[in-house]
Amino acid sequence: MNLSYPIGEFAPPASLTAAERREWIGQIAEAPACYRDAVKSLSEAQLDTPYRPGGWTVRQVIHHVADSHMNAYVRFRLALTEQNPTIKAYDQAKWAELPDARTAPLEASLEMIDGIHRRLTALLEGMSEQDFARTFQHPERGNMRLDLTLAMYAWHSRHHAAHINSLRERMAWK
After folding, report:
1. Burial group, residue 15, by CB count within 10 angstroms (0-12, 13-18, 19+)
2. Quick one: how many helices (H) and strands (E) in the chain?
């Protein structure tokens, strides 16, 4: 198993159909429960265990998901209300090293993930075919459509949950 990419690297889908979008929206909606299940009953020492050698700790992964998906939510809203806006990129590795990401209890980030995903799901469910074709400019990735962004964040949700769950399996943590 590739410890960095336990579900494989993100590959842009060949098609971006309404059925696929519904599936990805479902994955976004289910993600908060997946994260709560993934960290359920882990000790402080387990939360501070890297999911792979040289990787982030479980704690940092949860805080990263809250940070990342907060940015995703804002990106969707900007793209829906502005014409191809340029979004702000951020250095996720540096964010993961900030004191709160390294040491804060998980509950605040789990609550953020709950709330962000509820709002994002409601937003996504109300979007039209034309809305999913809207775009934003990413300083590093260029022009990005919202349907592709949805696919990427659905993958991102599964990707980081798999980091934690694969660590639990390898370490035989119940």
Report:
1. exposed
2. 8, 2
pLDDT, position 170: 96
Q: What is the Cα–Cα distance from 108 to 128, expressed in whole angstroms?
A: 32
Q: Report residue 174's pLDDT band, with 50, 70 and 90 as the boundaries.
A: confident
Tokens 């059925």 locate to 19
Task: Classify residue 23: in a domain, yes or no.
Answer: yes
Distance of alpha carbon 154 from alpha carbon 85, whole angstroms = 22
Per-residue pLDDT, 60: 98
> Rounded to an integer, what distance in angstroms lies between the CA atom of residue 79 and that of residue 86?
9
φ/ψ of 129, rounded to 5, equals: -55, -45
CATH number of residue 88's parent domain: 1.20.120.450
The answer on pLDDT for 1 being more than 90 is no
Q: Determine the structural domain holding residue 118 and report its residue range.
A: 18-171
Q: Read off the amino acid at residue 138.
A: H
The per-residue pLDDT of the chain, averaged, comes to 97
Number of domains observed in the structure of the chain: 1
pLDDT band at 95 (very low <50, low <70, confident <90, very high): very high
Is the residue at 141 inside a domain?
yes
Residue 50 is which amino acid? P
Token pair belonging to 171: 């370490």
SS3 content of the chain, % helix, strand, coil (to 5): 65, 5, 30
